[in-house]
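Recall the central idea of this unit: under ordinary conditions, the amino acid sequence of a chain determines the structure it adopts. In this exercise we apply that idea directly, starting from the sequence alone.
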Amino acid sequence: MLSPVIISMEVAIPATFITFLLGLLAAWKTVRLRRVKGILDGVFTLPMVLPPTVVGFFLLLIFGKNGLFGTWLSEIGLPVVFSIRGAVIAAAVVSFPLMYRTARGAFESMDRELILAARVCGASETRIFWQIVLPTCRPGIASGTILAFTRALGEFGATSMLAGNIPKRTQTMSLAIYSAVQGNDRESAYAWVIVITLISFTTLYLMNLFESGGFKRKKDPS
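Accordingly, the structure predicted from this sequence is:
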């Protein structure tokens, strides 16, 4: 009974980590570019507006048995189709735009004078990014990370096409709900809906509590 929960976490956590790193990098690079900013923004945002099945189809073209990288990955013993790796890749691709656009918005709204002042003081671009940009944009980045995690947790379309719906192997909670409904097992469907809703709501609640300073200890008046 816990298998879909475990599989969902095994998919959502690595996918969020990948999305976090790639989303920050893409957002920072896009903000600093001018000429091709519109093109890159469209490419990075495309998975968010395309139907998940279309995203899954493109992923099959890339990672399928005869895909661009699928043949090579299979030869080295790392097949993607019908595997947990495929589920992670699908969840990362679908959740990436949320991380990217949230981080990009945070980067664009920050005070540029802070960056200019750091450059005048001789700080490197790497140091500026890690010690000025990230701390300043922390709320937006954290929100993007949580949104990406919840999106990866509930991914269905692209995951079903690339990784399949294999019980105890690639069947996440979303896929378990679909299977339960198809099998007219409403009790299981209700149970999985409640579980995934509670996990998503709890994640968002803890994030809001953290951002509002609810975890901070009150200072002693004395």
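Confidence is low (pLDDT under 50) at residues 218-222.
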